[in-house]
Amino acid sequence: MDRRDFLLSSSLAAAAAATVTATSNGPVLAQATPPSEVGVNPDRPNTPYEGSKANRKLQIVNLLDLEPEAKKILPVGGYDYIFGGSGANWTRRENVEAFSRVNIEPQALSGTSQVDLSTEILGSKLSIPIFVPPMGSHGLAHVDKEAATARGAAAVGTLMATSTVSNMSMEEIASHNPGPKWFQLYVPTDRGYTRELVQRAKAAGYTAIAPTVDNLWSYPREENIRNEFRPPSTLGRGNLPRGMDPAAGSKMLSARKRDLNLDDLEWIKKEAGLPVIIKGVMSARVATAAIKAGMDGIWVSNHGGRAFDGVQATITMLPRIAQAVDGRVPIVLDSGVRRADHVFKALALGATVVGCGRPIMYGLALGGALGVQSVLEHLRDNLTIIMRLAGTKNVKAITRDYLAPPAIA
Ligand SMILES: Cc1cc2nc3c(=O)[nH]c(=O)nc-3n(C[C@H](O)[C@H](O)[C@H](O)COP(=O)(O)O)c2cc1C
Fold first, then answer.
1. Within a domain: residue 140?
2. Which of 306, 309, 312, 343 is the best mutation target for the ligand 1 pocket, counting ligand atoms within 8 Å of the beta carbon and taking the most?
3. Is residue 48 situated within a structural domain?
4. Strand locations in 208-335 (E)
């Protein structure tokens, strides 16, 4: 064994030992039991978790630059939780890399100088075709939690989706965001609680419900296991069932309906009286079935590679799903969007709006509401330039005609 092999095997052994001590039943193969909240900050033991307090505009050159900066200021467990993907992180990386296999074919001499980035989805008008997808526990990034993200999205005039597992309540978040908003639903097993959540969302002004269908079982996220980390309850759980003590309510919140099917989604649509967009569709067949069941939108997402490692990149799947959808309902795409040309490519392949996840959390950590605003403005300003160069005067004009043929499967 040479020195390098030795170091490798001893560090693996150390990691394995650490994992073994995390449970009395042997090595952890899956997150069957959530790790305890003890040690939420391996670098700052015995202190309650606290996100950043930054409040400033960011000068952004490249959204990927935000990762190491956020890492410097966030507790290890919180940063790794936001950054990490499931398993070997192949899908997380592939989400970004696959965009480079789609290429733009600009139409010079189009005479385009003014471009209009505004768009509309399910009756909501947005200033840009870029939005904030649902992410739980914004308190991991910033002490102002989801309120700051909501203010950042509202400042730019775009949509934010609120997660079921937000730290603040969906009503508080809505009060910071006069603009368009959707509510993401992790469907609970309890139907009474499910009804309560969707009715609360409607009353608070959310205009669509997005049940997430791709994260029903916890695929191991190795960093969280090593860090013994999960988002601490001290940051708040905003959408617990009403009139129930927090311990019992938390159990209900965590009890997700794992045998979710289309009948459940039809029932949710009836109870909510709002359009329903299915989040986590990675198959043309599932998209077709969902539309047949009356669903109002298809959200192509693999949860940013957090739900199921080995699943294809969303941009790779988009052409087949768009073909199956055939313009009947809008398509939303997220996962791996880090640059404005990624947004352009997703729009060209059939998406109506495009979500950018983790960079929003890093922007929140580094600058609060102003940081979130900076991330969205960075994408907006670069998309403006790309549209001018490509010769597309508005969002509707961005079609496959602006992609080079070899990249289209
Ligand atoms: C920290 C974090 C928390 C998330 N929480 C949720 C959630 O509560 N519900 C959900 O449907 N998706 C959740 N997601 C997935 C996002 O909605 C989105 O699909 C993903 O972040 C897009 O990938 P990207 O981060 O590569 O842009 C979360 C993502 C992150 C990074």
1. yes
2. 306
3. no
4. 209-211, 277-281, 297-300, 331-333
